[in-house]
Write a structure and sequence with these properties.
- The chain is 17% helix and 41% strand.
- It has 169 residues and is α+β, with helices and mostly antiparallel strands.
- A hairpin with a 2-residue loop joins strand 8 and strand 9.
Length: 169
């Protein structure tokens, strides 16, 4: 009888543990939102004038067929690493191009909830207004973070993977 009570107690405890524990989504389904940490990196919204854009960073294309890039930054720098969309025809079609861009962004394999970040616009002296998702990353420690993005720019597909290396000042 004691043995049966012990088995029932163990099964009850196991059921309690399983029932009370939260299931953690798989890595690929965890959406990144403003303020989330990915390792030692903070992914959040940027404040205009307080971050740099990817085209301003020290980046180089890696050898090979794929669009792989490597960027060097200093710890403390804040970078917007999204791909911008602009109207190269200068016919006020930015909203149309933006809505058809089908943009997707991943940080270390995690999808980013782009709507939660909103957008930011930059006026470039040559191409005019460029719209970006307002997703920035920063860290207080040296390290690497990998992003990948894809979408359509003016009906042309693009896809790239970038490794950002933050070094001590």
């Amino acid at each position: 009888m004691k043995r049966l009570a012990l088995i029932v107690f163990i099964l009850w405890m196991a059921g309690l543990l399983v029932g009370c524990s939260q299931t953690k989504p798989t890595e690929s389904s965890e959406l990144i939102r403003p303020g989330d940490m990915v390792g030692d990196f903070m992914v959040t919204q940027g404040e205009e004038g307080k971050f740099i854009y990817g085209f301003e960073a020290d980046c180089s294309k890696q050898a090979g067929q794929n669009e792989n890039y490597s960027c060097k930054l200093t710890v403390g720098e804040i970078i917007n690493f999204t791909t911008g969309i602009y109207d190269d025809t200068k016919t006020d079609k930015l909203d149309e191009y933006w809505s058809s861009s089908n943009y997707q962004l991943f940080v270390e394999g995690h999808p980013v909830d782009l709507q939660a970040f909103g957008t930011v616009e930059y006026t470039h002296p040559v191409v005019g207004v460029i719209r970006f998702w307002n997703v920035v990353v920063s860290t207080s420690k040296p390290g690497e973070i990998v992003t990948s993005d894809s979408g359509l720019a003016h009906d042309d597909p693009f896809e790239a993977t970038t490794t950002f290396t933050f070094s001590a000042p």
